[in-house]
Design a protein that fits this description.
With 203 residues, the chain is of the alpha/beta class. It has a domain of 62 residues. Strands 1, 2, 3, 4 and 5 form a five-stranded parallel β-sheet that branches. The longest helix is centred in the first third of the chain and has 19 residues. The radius of gyration is 20 Å and the shape is globular. The two termini are 37 Å apart.
Length: 203
């Protein structure tokens, strides 16, 4: 994934996901130290030597968000260093990964409430008629090179979309990230805020 992009920019891609995660852990540790005004050094993968960040950010703690739900490595990196974590893949998957993140936090002595949870909800299309919402959804993917439409997306009426999002509130998620491929459906964007959000405001 993204190997072509790495090659184009002359950035080493790594031989495996495990190797890239080892790089990530050290990189995030160095970044967190720099943001705290420390002078961290690389130990295994980076040649940073007592690197400084001057001037420091104005806000007291500049947040680091890590996206990904790898159960053994990624979520453990989140527990150690991140301020926010973005998960996706549907409610059952998000719930499972969130439970694993909480266990990692217990193991490393981190208060899990310090980590903001966000969830990627995929492509959302809202219309009063579910069939029209489906037509717009399929046309959106056709517009983008005829890509195969993603499965199990938030496509339907405002009430249907709210019903799909409501279970996330029960596990503490309040921040959803929706994708809007070209041609950028302004109607859905507006209706998410003006109709769906109020339906969920009561928790």
């Amino acid at each position: 994934m993204f190997e072509t992009e790495h090659r184009a920019f002359g950035i080493e891609f790594g031989r495996s996901p495990g190797e890239r995660l080892r790089w990530l852990e050290e990189a995030v540790r160095i970044m967190r130290g720099m943001l705290r005004g420390e002078r961290p050094s690389g130990e295994r993968f980076y040649r940073a030597d007592a690197v400084r960040l001057d001037p420091l950010p104005l806000q007291e703690r500049l947040p680091i968000l890590i996206g990904g739900g790898g159960e053994r490595k990624t979520l453990r990196i989140v527990a150690r260093y991140a301020d926010a974590c973005n998960l996706g893949g549907g409610f059952a998957n998000v719930k499972r990964r969130d439970e694993i993140l909480r266990r990692h936090c217990d193991e490393v002595g981190r208060d899990e409430s310090q980590i903001e949870r966000t969830v990627g909800i995929g492509t959302c299309i809202i219309r009063d008629d579910p069939a029209e919402a489906r037509r717009v959804f399929e046309a959106t993917f056709a517009h983008n090179g005829g890509a195969e439409p993603w499965k199990d997306q938030l496509v339907g009426t405002p009430e249907q979309v709210a019903d799909r999002l409501r279970p996330f509130l029960g596990i503490g998620f309040r921040h959803w990230i929706a994708g809007f491929p070209s041609p950028y459906d302004a109607e859905t964007m507006e209706r998410l805020v003006t109709e769906v959000k109020p339906m969920l405001a009561g928790g």
